[in-house]
Amino acid sequence: MFVARLKLPANYRVPPHTHPVDEAITVISGEFNIAIGEEFDEGETTALTAGGQATLPTTVAHFAHTDQETVIQISARGPWGLNYINPEDKSQIME
Question: Which InterPro entries does the annotation name (predicted)?
């Protein structure tokens, strides 16, 4: 098991991707807008605020964005990874 906290800037986009293991996300502060799907569509997202949680099963494609600085916590079992639906998205993300 591992837990990681990520501080995301305002207007940050996380392109559609999957993970090789189940993942649990908890919003620590700010607002994390997340949705299921293989194509990024901001209008489909659900806003999670502080204390909000989402559990994403293995290989379920999802994407997210922020409108304000946001801190999230990811909990999962390793080895963990990001598999972008569009491999070109990897070059646009700060990892």
Answer: Cupin_2, RmlC-like_jellyroll, RmlC_Cupin_sf
